[in-house]
Amino acid sequence: MHLPAGLGIRIETAIYQGYRVPSNYDAMILKIIATDFSRENALKRLRVAIDETVILGIETNLDLLSKILYHPDFIAEDSRTDINWLDRQLEGGN
Description:
Blueprint: E1 9-13, E2 30-34, H1 39-52, H2 62-70, H3 72-75, H4 85-90
Antiparallel strand pairs: 1-2
């Protein structure tokens, strides 16, 4: 396991190297928060943090999160996303 660190990155988790995730675990085992003076820079930090994160032994959604962070709708200054946006993307819609 490798978790990101650095200026503007905060990690919230209870997992640690060797931790055994129970079969009935909460799906959110880790939260990565990125901050900066602009949304654009915070997104850059978050992309790097996601890319640096390594969790072995269980399936994660890191690839999906990375795709979301690079999607034009999410990057847009007016963030053209809503509560149903991800469902539409997963269904192949726009």
